[in-house]
Design a protein that fits this description.
Structural class: mainly alpha
Bound molecules: zinc ion
InterPro entries: RING_finger_E3_ligase, Znf_RING, Znf_RING/FYVE/PHD
GO molecular function: ubiquitin protein ligase activity; zinc ion binding
Number of domains: 2
CATH class of the largest domain: Alpha Beta
Strand order of the largest sheet: 1-2
Shape: elongated
Order of helices and strands: HHHHEEHH
Region (Disordered): 1-31
Biased composition (Basic and acidic residues): 8-25
Largest sheet: 2 strands, antiparallel
CATH superfamily of the largest domain: Zinc/RING finger domain, C3HC4 (zinc finger)
Domain RING-type: 101-143
Number of strands: 2
CATH architecture of the largest domain: 2-Layer Sandwich
Helix content: 55-70%
Radius of gyration: 32 Å
Length: 166
C-alpha cells in the first residue's frame, strides 16, 4: 500500500505539466498579487524540490535493490543440519540406486570412497554430498530438502530453555 502511494507521487514528480504550471502562475498573478520575481523564485524552488525528491527516490531504489540482493544471498546460503547429514545411512556399493556419484561423476567402487544415502534415496560419495550440503540443503538430483542448520539452532535453543526451567 505504501508502495502504491509512493509510486503515484513519483509518477506525478516525473510528469511535467506546463499547462498546469502556467495556470498556477496566472492565478497567482491575478488573485494573489504575486510579482514576476516571486513567481520565478517559486518555479525555481519547485524545480529544486522536484530534483531532491527524484534523488531521494533513486536512493530508495538502490537500498531496495541491495536488500533484495542480500535476501537472495541468504536464501542461496542455506546449509543442511549437521545432525541430519550425520544421520544419513552409509550404503555399500550394490545397495544404492545409482552406479555413480552425480556430483563428481565418478563411479562407485566396491571398497572405495564412503557413500551416503539421502532420505530421498539418492546416494553420493560422502565427501561430495557433505561438501554440497554445507552450502545448500537440497538434494542435487531431486531437490529434496534436509532440515536446515537454522532448525538445528532453534532446537538447541529450545533444549537450553527447557533445561533452564527444570
Ligand atoms: Zn562424488
Ligand atoms: Zn534426491
Amino acid at each position: 500500500m505504501a508502495e502504491m502511494i509512493m509510486n503515484e507521487s513519483r509518477r506525478r514528480l516525473m510528469e511535467e505539466d506546463p499547462i498546469a504550471d502556467e495556470e498556477r502562475r496566472q492565478r497567482r498573478r491575478r488573485y494573489g498579487g504575486w510579482t514576476e520575481e516571486a513567481l520565478d523564485e517559486d518555479d525555481r524552488e519547485r524545480a529544486r524540490y522536484r530534483l531532491r525528491m527524484l534523488e531521494a527516490y533513486r536512493q530508495l531504489d538502490e537500498v531496495n535493490a541491495r536488500e533484495r540482493e542480500e535476501e537472495e544471498e541468504r536464501k542461496r546460503w542455506d546449509p543442511a543440519s549437521r545432525k541430519a547429514m550425520l544421520a544419513m545411512p552409509l550404503p555399500v556399493v550394490g545397495e544404492t540406486r545409482e552406479q555413480d556419484c552425480a556430483i563428481c561423476l565418478e563411479e562407485f567402487v566396491d571398497g572405495g570412497k564412503k557413500l551416503r544415502m539421502m532420505p530421498c534415496s539418492h546416494s553420493f560419495h560422502q565427501r561430495c554430498i557433505f561438501e554440497w550440503l554445507r552450502r545448500g540443503r537440497r538434494c542435487p538430483i531431486c531437490r529434496y530438502e534436509l532440515p536446515s542448520v537454522r532448525e538445528d539452532y532453534l532446537l538447541y535453543q529450545q533444549q537450553q530453555a527447557a533445561a533452564s526451567v527444570s
